[in-house]
Design a protein that fits this description.
The complex is a heterodimer of chains A (about 375) and B (about 400). Chain A contains 12 helices and 8 strands. With about 375 residues, chain A is of the alpha+beta class. Chain A has 3 domains: about 110 residues, Butyryl-Coa Dehydrogenase, subunit A, domain 1 (Orthogonal Bundle); about 110 residues, Butyryl-CoA Dehydrogenase, subunit A, domain 2 (Beta Barrel); about 150 residues, Butyryl-CoA Dehydrogenase, subunit A, domain 3 (Up-down Bundle), CATH 1.20.140. In chain A, strand 2 and strand 3 form a beta hairpin. Chain A is globular. Chain A starts with 7 loop residues before the first helix and ends with a helix. Chain B has about 400 residues and is α+β, with helices and mostly antiparallel strands. Chain B is about 50% helix and about 15% strand. In chain B, a hairpin with a 2-residue loop joins strand 2 and strand 3. The chains are: A alpha+beta (about 375), B alpha+beta (about 400).
């Protein structure tokens, strides 16, 4: 029995998206990996085909789909075995801030572009000295005469180079309580005082642009504040459950893909005696054990997705899922590569890219250590 | 058993540490990872100081030391930089097969340039589709007058495109009839030295690799490649034993590289967590961070004992295949654990190229597969423990 109630419409959406990605996206991924960025036209193509921001209401150009469309979109994108077109981050992590907390005017101004792919969105929380410890961030926002001035540096910002819109978390320097000091602001590309730093080189996620962002006397109009002043922390906390869930969905899909490729390889590759590798008992046990882990992850995850859609708050469980599933994907990537022999350390081997890509998942969207801290707190430990 | 490094061993460690401190400049490393090769000047310096040929007998211009000393050097080198250390210490990969020959013609010709850093070597043992199994070698060498005529394909040969010569495992036959030559028809296996520029030899890059970014791996093909009959290492029929002995040695070498890789990742994690503050204290003050560091160190310490012990046994002539395989299994696992935790402890920085541990993680994974994935090594160890059952 399936936990999630996918309808025929969902299934049709999945097949349509899969066909679209196979034709329009997958053929380019090697190029984008080499370029270390995904071109903006790919976002536009994806958006125009209806695969970005499926949750945005029709009023702003979206399809007003339920969260299962987001799940499908994230899973199908993960199957392209590249991470540059970070549509789940855009559609289900960043844009929801505008959907949930934006003014009518902000929604009208930005959401249609986010849906069409003309605007690529990013969220900037992490700073060079404020990673897990968000409360220690030092980027400031001073509001005067209806204008806001931002000063500070952000780092590890995904979509950082491509972003047309960045949601920036900044602090009121006059507010001593860090939890009341934080506000979110919308900064558009091209705003004077907003500069990109380096395009960061990293282990994986090569097709995705990760960048430093600098704000120096960066002035934005007062209406670019998202929600009320001082409400930033609450807004982040409210949206983090979905961010962790989306991260888990991407990690789960990556693990499933790695295992599928590995299993096929072991079935279809023979040793010198023409015996398939999958006839080796050790390979069989490895594949069975890994499949068991993947299925456990899937069951846990689907249950949390169902709860999330029903409006349940499951902070401890979602944190556990983020930690366990991203670690599981990493374990699967390590163990699977062993089954390929020397081919397993060549970039030509299809799971080697995934090996590099999944390694960041236990780190981003809150490190797994932070996930365990949160779970411990909510378990009353 | 108690290991106390004597003065000369400590001097080797010190000399290597001084060398890497002076030569493994971070900018140079990051650049070399992009180009896929170490600067010639660094290779030359390593050779001049006698590190890359530390175990080559002194009569052939090498350091005249044993595998144990090689292990110490490789560990310290990879500790400073895993990729660069591998590139330097693997530069003579396979030349070991020439160390103890009764007929010295090959050693005299090939070992001095390897010791001097002027030539690289590539052991060409494994074949496409055969995994780690070398007993069924299909590459053939047929004696034809004054020549061996070699035909076949070898996979994932280290230094495949840059080596001056290959040490090739072949099924040999003394008469010129080239038809039906393979070990399956009872032909003995032999190791033969083949110059890389021999007509009929082709090397095709295996492409970019996950780690070991300054070592080139290639598939090497032999099509009627003719080499002198004198290029045989030892006698016909000694190839399998010699290859297996070389593999023992090479696995201990790889284990030392893994040990250094893990140690290097640990060093960086220790430095970082002692300096980085979050939530008002140093990361190294959090209990879980401390336990992670403790796990990493404990794993590396047990790996160190296993690798040192295997190298000592090899030098004493008492190292069997299971001891060498166990050293590599233990060290690669400790390296992966340490590198993985180092990436995690450095957080976002751990994933960034400029903070180095990300390539230690890739190098550790590469070493976990190179010369035998865990499954292959366990087969070897179990074979040694259990023997043949009937």
């Amino acid at each position: 029995m399936e936990i999630l109630a996918y309808t025929d419409d969902h299934h049709r959406f999945r097949s349509r998206m899969r066909a679209f990605l196979e034709k329009e996206i997958t053929p380019w991924t090697h190029q984008w990996e080499a370029d270390h960025i995904t071109p903006k036209w790919a976002w536009q193509k994806l958006g125009r085909a209806g695969f970005l921001c499926t949750g945005v209401s029709p009023e702003y150009g979206g399809m007003g789909g339920d969260f299962l469309y987001s799940v499908i979109a994230a899973e199908e994108m993960a199957k392209t075995n590249h991470t540059g077109l970070a549509s789940a981050l855009h559609s289900d992590v960043v844009v929801p801030y505008i959907q949930a907390f934006g003014s009518q005017e902000q929604k009208k101004k930005y959401l249609p572009g986010c849906v069409s792919g003309d605007i690529i969105a990013a969220v900037a929380m992490t700073e060079p000295d404020a990673g897990s410890d968000l409360a220690s961030m030092t980027t400031t926002a001073t509001e005067k005469n209806g204008e806001i001035e931002l000063n500070g540096a952000k780092t590890f910002i995904s979509n950082g180079i491509n972003a047309g819109l960045v949601i920036v978390a900044a602090k009121d320097p006059d507010e001593p309580n860090p939890y009341n000091a934080l506000t979110l602001y919308i900064v558009e590309d091209g705003t004077p005082g907003f500069k990109r730093g380096r395009h960061l080189e990293k282990m994986g996620f090569h097709s995705q642009d990760t960048a430093e962002l600098f704000f120096t006397n960066c002035r934005i109009p007062g209406q670019n504040r998202l929600g009320q002043k001082g409400q930033g922390f609450g807004m982040l906390m409210e949206k983090l459950q979905q961010e962790r869930l989306v991260t888990s969905i991407c990690a789960q899909a990556a693990a499933e893909l790695i295992l599928e490729i590995t299993t096929d390889f072991c079935k279809n590759t023979t040793d010198r005696d023409q015996k398939p590798l999958s006839k080796s008992q050790a390979a069989q046990f490895a594949i069975v054990e890994m499949t068991t882990e993947v299925k456990l992850g899937r069951t846990f995850l689907d249950k949390l997705i169902a709860g999330h859609m029903a409006g349940e708050q499951a902070i401890a469980e979602t944190s556990m899922a983020k930690y366990w599933i991203t670690d599981m994907a990493k374990r699967i990537s390590r163990r699977s590569t062993d089954l390929f022999g020397d081919y397993g350390f060549c970039e030509a081997c299809p799971i080697v890219r995934a090996f590099r890509d999944v390694r960041v998942m236990p780190i981003f969207a809150g490190t797994n250590e932070i996930m365990k801290n949160i779970a411990a707190k909510f378990m009353g430990l | 058993m108690h290991f106390e490094l004597d003065k000369s061993h400590k001097e080797i460690q010190k000399a290597v540490r001084e060398f890497v401190r002076a030569q493994f400049d971070r900018e140079m490393i990051l650049e070399s990872l992009k180009t896929g090769n170490l600067p010639a000047a660094v290779r030359k310096k390593a050779a001049q100081l006698g590190f890359s040929g530390i175990h080559i007998p002194d009569e052939y211009d090498g350091g005249g030391m044993g595998l144990f000393e090689y292990v110490l050097a490789a560990e310290q080198m990879c500790r400073k930089d895993a990729s660069a250390g591998m590139a330097l210490m693997l530069s003579g990969f396979g030349a070991e097969c020439l160390f103890d020959l009764d007929r010295k013609n090959l050693a005299e010709k090939y070992l001095p340039p390897v010791a001097g850093g002027k030539m690289r070597a590539g052991a060409a043992l494994f074949e496409p589709g055969a995994g780690a199994d070398i007993s069924g070698t299909q590459t053939t060498a047929a004696a034809s007058g004054e020549h061996w005529i070699i035909n076949g394909d070898k996979a994932y040969v280290p230094n495949g495109k840059t080596a001056g010569f290959y040490v090739v495992l072949c099924a040999t036959r003394e008469d010129a009839d080239q038809a039906d030559i393979s070990v399956n028809s009872g032909n003995p296996l032999s190791l033969i030295v083949v110059d890389a520029d021999t007509p009929g030899v082709t090397a095709e890059s295996a492409g970019p690799t996950l780690g070991a970014g300054m070592v080139d791996f290639a598939h090497v093909g032999f099509q009627n490649a003719a080499v002198s009959v004198k290029n045989i290492i030892g006698n016909t029929g000694q190839g399998l034993d010699r290859s297996l002995s070389f593999l023992n040695q090479a696995r201990i070498q790889a284990a030392a590289m893994a040990l250094g890789t893990g140690q290097g990742a640990f060093d960086r994690a220790l430095d970082y967590t002692r300096q980085r503050s979050q939530f008002g204290k140093k990361l190294a003050q959090f209990q879980v961070t401390r336990h992670k560091l403790a796990d990493m160190a404990a794993g590396l310490e047990s790996a160190r004992l296993s690798v040192y012990q295997a190298a000592k046994a090899f030098d004493a002539g008492t190292c069997d295949a299971k001891t060498a395989a166990a050293a590599k299994l233990t060290a690669a696992n400790a390296a992966m654990t340490a590198a993985d935790e180092a990436v995690q402890l450095l957080g976002g920085y751990g994933y960034m190229t400029e903070y180095e541990v990300e390539h230690f993680y890739r190098d550790a994974k590469t070493l976990e597969i190179f010369l035998g994935s865990p499954g292959v090594l366990k087969d070897v160890i179990a074979g040694g423990l259990i023997g043949k059952l009937r």
